[in-house]
Specification:
6-stranded parallel sheet, alpha/beta, 7-stranded mixed sheet
Length: 341
């Protein structure tokens, strides 16, 4: 079979690799669509230390079951699935709390030395597969994983119904946070970004207001959009000092900031602002099985307005070109999905 193999920083090749066979309790999934995550691009550039060459990346994927191992009961060849790309032990203290994403012995497909879904096929545990309805496109189903990341973050804010929310950053996660907020009944959702094309996508996906922080006074703009109160909740989906600071400044007294951005290990922020205004700050990482299941339900029910997020679909054979482009000249691309016909 073919796979897009990471060979080292700035080195990738679409090449022949050994085929895969499911073990007991595993299913073989013929990959139909796999999104390129920002973490994949950072891995390709050799910036994270979380990609061990040679390996195939790819953890945002959907496909069709082609073979099942012994003991598999829930799926059969031909079934359409989205895959929870975290193989958890089910026995550690975190798994005992249902926090499978924090499992001490987890294996993440497409991370470190574990091969992922930039390939013709991949074998995954039966427990990680979720059925897709026939009318759901594989491209849209490949968004389930980042959608679950966004939903998990939003859920840290508790009940968002009727709340004014600012989303800082109109990349994949920020835009899927927007979708999560609208589906959960948030009041006014404002999306901030310096890219006007991305703000246009945010509008298409249901943003009530958009704001470019380089135009006018950012704090005054947010105040004007929230009746002078500031945002109840701010979702930071970039991971830089300036965007974290923007999220904090936009919050009302006692407001809640959720950090989804994971770009810089160290940032500078105004601690006194957080302390004196009694703001709450939550970090958020990955997602639970329940988050993943909720997103699958939304997508299977046709409730998620996410089509505008996919900027480009391309054959897996063109993956090297699109990794290079996203790494060095992304232009207005947000989500690129690689496909196997």
């Amino acid at each position: 079979m073919k796979a897009l193999v990471y060979l080292g920083p700035n080195q990738m090749e679409y090449k022949d690799v050994a085929d895969v066979t499911p073990k007991a309790d595993e299913v073989k999934v013929d990959v139909k669509s796999c999104g390129i995550c920002g973490s994949d691009v950072h891995g390709y550039l050799g910036l994270t230390g979380r990609r061990t060459e040679p390996m195939a990346m790819g953890h945002e994927f959907s496909g069709q079951v082609s073979e099942v191992g012994g003991g598999v009961k829930s799926f059969k060849p031909g079934d359409r699935v989205a895959v929870y790309p975290v193989d958890f032990c089910g026995e550690c203290d975190m798994c005992g709390q249902g926090q499978y994403q924090l499992c001490k012995d987890k294996r993440q497909f497409g991370v470190l030395e574990v091969d992922g879904a930039f390939a013709d096929s991949i074998c995954v545990p039966e427990k990680c597969c979720f059925p897709l309805k026939e009318d759901v496109s594989f491209d849209i189903a490949s968004l389930v994983e980042p959608f679950a990341v966004a939903l998990h973050g939003v859920r840290h804010a508790g009940d968002v119904a009727g709340k004014n929310v600012l989303v800082v950053g109109a990349g994949t996660i920020g835009l899927l946070a927007l979708s999560s907020l609208k589906l959960l009944g948030a009041g006014k959702v404002i999306v901030s970004d310096i890219n006007e094309t991305r703000l246009g996508v945010a509008k298409a996906m249901g943003a009530d207001e958009t704001v470019n922080p380089t135009v006018g006074d950012f704090e005054q703009n947010i105040a004007g959009m929230t009746g002078g109160k500031g945002a109840d909740i701010a979702i930071e989906a970039v991971g830089s000092a300036i965007t974290v600071q923007q999220a904090s400044k936009a919050l009302r007294f006692g407001g809640t900031a959720i950090w989804l951005g994971n770009n810089k290990p160290m940032i500078e922020m105004n601690m006194q602002e957080v302390v004196t205004r009694e703001q709450k700050v939550y970090g958020s990482f990955l997602y639970t099985l329940d988050d993943f299941r909720q997103v699958i339900e939304w997508i299977n029910a046709g409730k998620a307005n996410v089509d505008a997020l996919v900027s480009k679909t391309a054959p897996m054979s063109e993956g090297v070109f699109y990794f290079e482009k996203l790494a060095h000249d992304p232009e207005d691309l947000i989500k690129v999905v690689l496909t196997n016909e």
